[in-house]
Amino acid sequence: MKKYSLKDMRERYDYQESDSILVGQKIYEFQKVTSTMDVVKELSSSSGVVVVSETQTQGKGRFEREWISQEKNDLLFSYILKIPQENIHTMLFKNSLSLLKTISELIDQRVFIKWPNDIYCENEKIAGILTKTELFSGNSELIVGIGLNVNSDKTYLLSKGLKATSLKFLTGKTFDKRKILYGFLNNLNKMLAKDFNENEVFFEWKNSLGILGKIINFRFIDNEKITLKAKVEDIDDIGRLIIKDSSGRKGFLSSEEITIVNKN
User: Fold this and answer.
1) In order of start, what are the domains of the chain with their CATH numbers?
2) Which residues in the chain belong to E strands, given as ranges?
3) Each residue of 218-239: pLDDT tens digit?
């Protein structure tokens, strides 16, 4: 295990800005873990701790789906953060925008957020975010897990039946995963700064989804046989979709109950 901090990385890469560090005060790097989300919870209760690993043996995505990554080729990490309960929903926006910006700085292709927080490039998934929340009196503890396909081979992804891509496939380059982690943590800490405009964050996230006004096919998580086709009229300030079905009925859909099947 290696131990360092974002401050160490900033000194190494000659970081010129003065924003504070809320996530990344301590970074623990492992060769192999079951799941970085499990390890960061076991390792420390301190806010801002990051765990990164070369390999995960039991990585998970949304709805307990297996997170598949090529051993030692991808960026797999989690962090823990304690914030007021009323700020929980804003982390959905800040995490996905920070990851979107980090990826956009590395490739020329268009990337976008697939609601609520997966990152796609040319309709193939390149990264995903999973958040678990525990509530205490007035406060919440978030454990955020992130997987980014960095140096994975396209043939490996296809062999696993994944409609996915990687930074290496898109550019033909091999990337330094630690430097990408450094870029993400800097982008995230900027968004966590107290003077960052929360409304601007929400609207930037909302406009990065690209689904407003479109007719979308949804599948319900608790019963995948039930599907819904509806137009996305708007998105509310906690990230729920405001939809209208073919009969004109309006409603709200949350990411805990449905998933997007495809877009028309």
Assistant:
1) 2-207 (3.30.930.10), 215-263 (2.30.30.100)
2) 2-4, 26-33, 49-56, 75-84, 111-114, 118-121, 124-135, 139-148, 215-220, 227-235, 241-245, 250-253, 258-263
3) 999 888 788 999 999 999 999 9
